[in-house]
Specification:
The protein has 7 helices and 7 strands; from the N terminus they run βαβαβαβαβαβαβα. It is of the alpha/beta class and 238 residues long. The chain has one domain: Spore Coat Polysaccharide Biosynthesis Protein SpsA, Chain A. A 7-stranded mixed beta sheet has the order 3-2-1-4-6-5-7, sandwiched between helices.
Length: 238
């Protein structure tokens, strides 16, 4: 079977969420025409996450399992999943069950009209400080980069692999991917999605340890967007 859809899920210490997530995704995609796979990328978890992935893989041949030897962060795990396969279409989601897999078919269907679709978390089930931080980050991105996406932090996305042309891996990529794709001349659309409360595991999000990192990332992406070389029309001598 030639896989045409890879569903990439970076995980870190999410042992209680692995099998429920596999069950939900399977329930959604077993009734579709997609030749799909689930790609778990374990970012060197210290709990039983890897064992849960191995157990799920033993029962489900659609699962691929990758593991970092050292904890490298969400962006690195996402990139590991992306470069590990060749499927034409890619979907991404968090491994904490807050993203709803039933939203994915709608995002994927929208790829008939655009190149990249990302979710907007409606009625976010997050702490108030995380919501405020997201609003501040959105205003900063709009001011510095001149583009306005409502929820670049949402991990639920679907896109054609071709949009990765000109995208490079860096720590923080997962928060800027829609912006970089848009800057590359591809069509990007946001769609409202469901957002659910966390029922297992602990959030890895911290505000203060991300403020300076986010600021440096913003400056770096602004520099790149200003200096990037887009496709230049040319002719070739016969």
């Amino acid at each position: 079977m030639v896989v045409n859809l890879s569903i990439i899920i970076p995980v870190y210490n999410e042992s209680g969420n692995v099998q429920p997530l596999v069950d939900e995704i399977s329930s959604v995609f077993n009734t579709t025409n997609w030749n799909w796979e689930i790609v778990f990328v374990d970012d060197a978890s210290t709990d039983g996450t890897w064992d849960q992935i191995k157990s799920a893989k033993a029962r489900n041949p659609r699962i691929r399992a990758l593991r970092h030897q050292n904890n490298a962060g969400q962006s690195a795990a996402l990139w590991t999943g992306i470069v590990s396969g060749e499927a034409e279409f890619i979907a991404t989601m968090d491994g904490d069950l807050q993203n709803d897999p039933s939203d994915l078919p709608r995002l994927l269907a929208t790829l008939q009209e655009v190149d990249f679709v990302c979710g907007i978390r409606m009625k976010r089930r997050d702490s108030w400080i995380r919501k405020v931080s997201s609003k501040v980050a959105r205003r900063a991105r709009k001011w510095v980069l001149g583009v306005d996406f409502e929820d670049t932090g949402c991990a639920l996305r679907a896109f054609n692999r071709k949009v990765l042309r000109g995208v490079f891996p860096f720590n923080g990529l997962h928060r800027f991917l829609p912006i970089l794709v848009d800057g590359g001349g591809f069509k990007v659309r946001e769609l409202p999605i469901n957002h659910r409360p966390r029922v297992s595991g602990v959030s890895k999000y911290g505000v203060w340890n991300r403020v300076w990192r986010g600021l440096l990332d913003l400056i770096a992406v602004a520099w790149y967007q200003h200096r990037r070389i887009d496709h230049v029309r040319h002719v070739e001598m016969p």
